[in-house]
Design brief:
single chain; 386 residues; alpha/beta; three-stranded parallel sheet; 15 helices
Length: 386
């Protein structure tokens, strides 16, 4: 099949949506499909990938997120492009101006399309002083996804939330994790030594955007409670974002490792000891399953990936949403018990064994093929009655 994939974020950008979309595109290409990738033009040149042809369009810088871009409206360009090389199906991964243009162009050309619900932009508004816009953002998301034949979500809980919002077409497509890459055997004592810790010192890890919507204040509070149990504990932060400079200035004892990719990221996971993740704004949270696969016990609220994959008291602690005191207590309890860290870490790694990337790609392929076949059948039926 020829498959159109439209995304306003894609590597070399580093975030959960970009990496998920790239995994889907590369996985389909590896199975012999031709991928028509539509994305905003970036300052860095696009690296060619087998089976993926990229059309890079005009974009702009995303306010308050250096390095991230959004695509400008491009309906006419997309209609011309897809009229010349018509995809069998289109997947629109992001809800920005480019995504909206792609949605309209595909519908106008009669190309079957699905969408992805990756980011709770409605909940982000309040973190940037725009809480009054939340109903408007939610309405926009509802109108956007109602136009797709299927909206792909990573958890059953999110599917239920979307149904309550009036988006009745939600369909489950689970997230995968590369358990060969994210593995406890990538623990690197030299890396730990560079952090100034020995084998007995607990290292707390944060991975992700360093941004207000990630509930960073609670992350800091949890670490200060951990220090009461383990005074030598260190906090390592992997990632970047608009809150990094202020956080780094306020907490000079934290270690900021910047953005890490691939094996370097896997070493950072495996070389740490526990992963408190206090975000309440995740649709999923890939970092949770990456941490578990790497053998780190996780403390997280019962949202997204944590609700699906975190077993309270087995591979970490799954905290009732918004209970900050319980979150802090669980993180401190875990940090003060090295044997429990090791036990939960082994359980975390074992529990991720079934999240095969190949299985997720096959499910995605099946959905797209069904959409394409249904579209052909509808056109054949219409032609037969003309």
């Amino acid at each position: 099949m020829r498959i159109g994939i439209v995304s306003e974020t894609y590597p070399p950008e580093i975030n959960g949506v970009a990496l998920t979309v790239h995994s889907l595109a590369a996985g389909l290409a590896a199975r012999g499909h031709s991928i028509d990738l539509i994305r905003p033009r970036q300052p860095q040149p696009y690296g060619d990938e087998a089976g993926i042809d990229a059309l890079e369009l005009r974009g702009g810088a995303l306010p308050r997120y250096p390095g991230l871009r959004f695509g400008l409206p491009a309906g006419r360009t997309l209609r011309q492009h897809w009229s010349k090389q018509r995809p069998d199906a289109v997947y629109v991964a992001t809800e920005g101006p480019l995504g909206w243009s792609a949605m309209r162009a595909a519908r106008r050309l009669g190309i079957p399309l699905s969408s992805g619900f990756h980011t709770r932009f409605d909940s982000y508004a309040s973190h940037y002083g725009l809480g009054l816009l939340t109903p408007l953002v939610r309405g926009y998301l509802r109108r956007f996804h109602q136009r797709a034949a299927a909206t792909l979500v990573p958890t059953n809980a999110l599917a239920r939330e979307l149904h309550a919002m009036g988006i009745a077409n939600a369909r489950l497509l689970r997230r995968a994790v590369d358990t060969q890459l994210f593995h406890p055997n990538r623990r690197d004592e030299a890396l730990r030594a560079s952090w100034g810790v020995d084998a007995a010192t607990p290292v707390v890890l944060y991975v992700g955007r360093i941004a207000p919507e990630k509930n960073l204040e609670l992350a800091v509070q949890a670490f200060r409670a951990i220090r009461q149990q383990a005074p030598q504990a260190r906090y390592v932060w992997v990632g970047d974002g608009p809150a990094r400079d202020a956080l780094q200035a306020a907490h000079p004892d934290f270690i900021f490792a910047g953005v890490q990719r691939g094996e370097a990221l896997a070493r950072h996971y495996a070389s740490a000891d526990l992963f408190p993740f206090p975000s309440l704004s995740e649709t999923f949270g890939n970092v949770i399953i990456e941490a578990l696969a790497a053998g780190l016990p996780v403390v997280a609220y019962a949202e997204g990936a944590a609700r699906e994959h975190l077993v309270d008291g087995v591979n970490g602690y799954c905290i009732a949403s918004g209970n900050a005191a319980a979150f802090i207590e669980a993180a401190a309890k875990l940090a003060g018990n090295p044997a429990l860290i090791r036990h939960m870490g082994r359980a975390g790694h074992a529990g991720m064994a079934g999240l095969s990337p190949d299985a997720v790609i096959r499910d995605f392929e099946t959905l797209l093929r069904e959409m394409a076949e249904e579209n052909l059948h509808e056109h054949a039926t219409i032609a037969a009655h003309v």
